[in-house]
Design a protein that fits this description.
5 strands
């Protein structure tokens, strides 16, 4: 094999390996989001879709839902806590309290700068 052919083959193999690594990481993230969503649903948390699961600061794993609300996941204790957007304090999730006082578990407030205006047509 010539040097150019070996270099091309090595480059191609490297690209395939990095692609597989990226896809496996993406698949893992999707699976983690799905598991977190099932965990939230089992506890009656109003979350239509888990966008991501991360580990901010020392909070452990936090699931972010499509509405912007964040939920701390305590897998071993089989509990959920709502992460208050302004203070970052966590409050134990209680479905009955949510049904009586949904404002306690309110999502992040949107300011005028956060709104996106979509216009169609000329």
């Amino acid at each position: 094999m010539t040097r150019a052919v070996r270099l091309a083959a090595t480059t191609w193999c490297s690209c395939v390996a990095f692609g597989m690594l990226f896809l496996s990481g993406s698949t893992y993230a999707q699976e983690l989001n799905a598991v977190a969503h099932k965990f939230l649903k089992r506890h009656g948390v109003p979350c239509l879709l888990v966008l991501k699961v991360g580990s901010p600061r020392d909070m452990g794993e936090v699931a972010t839902c499509q509405d912007g609300r964040e939920w701390a996941l305590f897998w071993l204790e089989d509990e959920i806590a709502f992460v208050q957007p302004q203070t970052r304090d966590s409050y134990k999730w209680d479905r009955q309290t949510y049904q009586s006082h949904p404002e306690i578990y309110g999502g992040p407030s949107t300011s005028n700068e956060d709104h996106l205006l979509l216009a169609y047509g000329p």
